[in-house]
């Protein structure tokens, strides 16, 4: 086993959202010297059980590479939903500063575990990329639940970046008044989370959930389990439906059975 190769892979696995719990298993598999191997990981997001299979393969130079991982989301009363996410080399961004040597920034646009889960929940995830090694830009990613590739994986759609902060400022969100809390809110929404915020409604502070909607360059609003339609005002009755467990959970969503059925039908699965 090459120690440098192991050190790189354990950091890559950790950065991809799997933590350091698999470090021992990773070393054990690399010592075995197999051409390829898999590591298995389980996690829980809210009430959803998520299983991941991480795929590693050895090159002709005896270096192992973490090439992809498959995520399976298991919801109570619903069929499992799967997606394979491939990993790519980070983009190289060369920063030119007058009078100084150029500096290099590596922009990693690989999808992390929580983002992979959020995509399968039907939400949008924002990732940064580099064009011609000189320009950084962002795209929003969404899963196309109506179309799959030859291996049965959903296709990933890209949408141009939009000003999420400007959309949020259309609402009296308390967290936008503080730079630190605003940054935390935006970062969470960029990852595809459904994030709770506090708003002043008729002189009273109430909790709402927001998520980015890249399809329409907008945001979705929720009160409890109920999505508030565009232009519609929240009602006191809706607010009362939000229970304590939902208040504590900052990023979870309801099952989207219709999207699961779309994958079942695409793969020819019958009930």
Q: In words, what does this structure look like?
A:
The model is unreliable at 236-259 and 264-271 (pLDDT under 50). The protein has 2 domains: 3-160, no CATH class; 164-248, no CATH class. It has a 4-stranded antiparallel β-sheet. Strands 10-11-12-13 form a 4-stranded antiparallel β-sheet. Strands 7-8-9 form a 3-stranded antiparallel β-sheet. Helix content is 26%, strand content 38%. It has 271 residues and is of the alpha+beta class. A hairpin with a 4-residue loop joins strand 11 and strand 12. The chain has 8 helices and 13 strands. The protein starts with a helix and ends in a 5-residue tail after the last helix.
List the helices and strands and how they pair.
Elements lengths: L2 H16 L4 H10 L3 E10 L2 E11 L5 E11 L6 E6 L4 E5 L7 E5 L5 H8 L4 E7 L3 E14 L5 E7 L3 H5 L10 H12 L4 E7 L2 E10 L4 E6 L2 E3 L7 H5 L3 H5 L8 H10 L5
Antiparallel strand pairs: 1-2, 2-3, 3-4, 5-6, 7-8, 8-9, 10-11, 11-12, 12-13
The beta-strand count equals 13
Question: What is the strand arrangement across the widest sheet?
Answer: 1-2-3-4
Q: What's the order of the H and E elements? A: HHEEEEEEHEEEHHEEEEHHH
Number of helices: 8
Helix percentage range:
25-40%
Structural class designation = alpha+beta
Radius of gyration: 21 Å
Overall, the morphology is globular
Beta-strand residue fraction:
35-45%
Q: How many structural domains?
A: 2
Mean pLDDT comes to 88
Q: Cα distance, first to last residue?
A: 47 Å
